[in-house]
């Protein structure tokens, strides 16, 4: 996706792009679906079932982090010219504050800092009642394509 600053944000084009690029990836394996986007945020859902459980039948923290990284890195894609630049996650942190056994979780990445070469995102993962499950932060580096 090539995002020029003078272009109007096209939510449906962004959601379509994520639907296309996530085929045959971890996002598809985990059932992550991108459902909303804006110029400085991205939202996705992930089902909570045995595919993302740890042995005690709870949502695995690593699955939550995978959702967070998918959101934060994906959100940075919306802010760059993908013809000449690419995104790499360089640090991610997560605090898991509540467990979940079934249903789904909703993640929302919100932009905290947009620099020329560094983007910082906060990702809140909640349940359908807006109760916080995990809070994550990711730092992405923006690189020129080789």
What overall form do the CA principal axes indicate? Answer: globular
State the end-to-end distance.
17 Å
By DSSP, the count of extended strands is 6
> Low-confidence spans: pLDDT under 50, at least 5 residues?
none
Average pLDDT works out at 95
Beta fraction of the residues?
35-45%
Looking at the chains present, what oligomeric state does this protein adopt?
A: single chain
Q: Radius of gyration over alpha carbons?
A: 15 Å
Secondary structure class reads alpha+beta
* Largest sheet data: 6 strands, antiparallel
Order of helices and strands: HHEEHEEEE
Helix content: 10-25%
Strand order of the largest sheet: 1-2-4-5-6-3
SS field, number of helical segments:
3
Can you describe what's shown?
By secondary structure, the protein is an alpha+beta fold. It has helices at 11-21, 26-30, 61-77; strands at residues 33-38, 41-48, 85-96, 103-114, 118-126, 132-144. It has a six-stranded antiparallel sheet. The mean pLDDT is 95.
Features:
alpha+beta, single chain, globular, 146 residues, 6-stranded antiparallel β-sheet
What is the structure about, briefly put?
With 146 residues, the chain is an alpha+beta fold. The chain has helices spanning 11-21, 26-30, 61-77; strands at 33-38, 41-48, 85-96, 103-114, 118-126, 132-144. A hairpin with a 5-residue loop joins strand 5 and strand 6 (132-144).
Helices and strands in order, then pairings?
Blueprint: H1 11-21, H2 26-30, E1 33-38, E2 41-48, H3 61-77, E3 85-96, E4 103-114, E5 118-126, E6 132-144
Antiparallel strand pairs: 1-2, 2-4, 3-6, 4-5, 5-6
């Amino acid at each position: 996706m090539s995002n020029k600053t003078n272009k109007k944000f096209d939510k449906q084009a962004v959601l379509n792009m994520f639907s296309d690029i996530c085929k045959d990836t971890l996002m598809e394996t985990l059932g992550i679906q991108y459902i909303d986007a804006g110029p400085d945020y991205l939202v996705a859902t992930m089902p909570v079932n045995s595919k993302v459980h740890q042995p005690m039948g709870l949502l695995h923290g690593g699955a939550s982090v995978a959702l967070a990284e998918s959101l934060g890195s994906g959100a940075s894609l919306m802010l760059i010219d993908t013809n000449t630049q690419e995104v790499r996650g360089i640090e991610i942190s997560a605090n898991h504050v509540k467990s979940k056994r079934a249903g789904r979780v909703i993640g929302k990445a919100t932009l905290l800092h947009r620099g020329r070469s560094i983007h910082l995102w906060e990702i809140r993962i909640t349940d359908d009642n807006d109760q916080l499950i995990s809070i994550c932060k990711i730092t992405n580096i923006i690189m020129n394509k080789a």
